[in-house]
Amino acid sequence: MLIVKAPFLQRYRYSLILLRQMVITDFKLRYQGSVLGYVWSLLKPLVLFAILYVVFVNFLKIGADVPNFPVYLLLGVVIWSYFVEVTNQSIRSIVERDELIRKINFPRYVIVLSSAVSSLINLLLNLLVVGIFILATHAHIGLSALWTPLLILELFIISLSISFFVSALYVRFRDIIYIWEVLLQAAFYATPIIYPLNLVPEAYAKVLLLSPMAQIIQDLRYALITPETITLAHLYHTGWVYLVPLSITILTAVVAALYFRHHARYFAEDV
Fold first, then answer.
1. What is the pTM of this model?
2. CB-based contact 84:158 (threshold 8 Å)
3. How distant, in Å, are the alpha carbons of 70, 74, 88 from that of 57?
4. CB 260 within 8 A of CB 168
5. What is the C-alpha to C-alpha distance for residues 18 and 121, in angstroms, rounded to an integer?
6. Are 197 and 230 in contact (CB under 8 A)?
7. CA distance 70 to 58
8. Each residue of 154-187: pLDDT tens digit?
9. DSSP 133
10. How does pLDDT run across 195-237, given as a tens digit for each residue?
């Protein structure tokens, strides 16, 4: 029994060591040479939030009927920024480490995973800032806040899954990076980030919320800011509907893992 376990544990111990080193290196190099350094990881979503707040809240008067809408908006921006950061960094990650892939035999998935974990650290730092705003505005935090870790886990899984898929695609099809930029832009407006869902006709809202990203953002807003947030359970009057975005997440993870695993053996030749 020990003979079976030892190689298994040793294999993943090696992967964890590699993952740790890649995350540390990525985090150090990300803002190397900049004056503010790691502070940029906090400033980027705050600057975007400020712009959106001025345009949509002050000028267009959107969200006036949503309690604590500024924090409601900030949380959506932070969660979406994480998804964009993970996928955009991962898409080039295999190709950018072509020399490493050619010279060293190691699990290729560690490259993509390191980008996702590095971005997750940024997300947790940003959520600390959001938490301060939530406390400062006396937003409603109920027992549903206990679901937050699971929602972050779901966010991590769907982001990592798509990252595996697009990074493997990019090795062979470089045009995928431009296609992904367009898809991200479309998805940004299709997800209730800068506008409350009550502005969308119910029939369309039911479709939009089946997206894992929309579901995660709305559920986090419900859990951390206001119970008046429209969620899947409110629209469909049943919790079973959550099986749809969860199934999409799981299916995406399985397909992406299989696709990445199949093509990983050819990375050294294709990059």
1. 0.88
2. no
3. 8, 12, 29
4. yes
5. 17
6. yes
7. 11
8. 999 999 999 999 999 998 888 899 999 999 999 9
9. H
10. 888 888 999 999 999 999 999 999 999 999 988 899 999 999 8
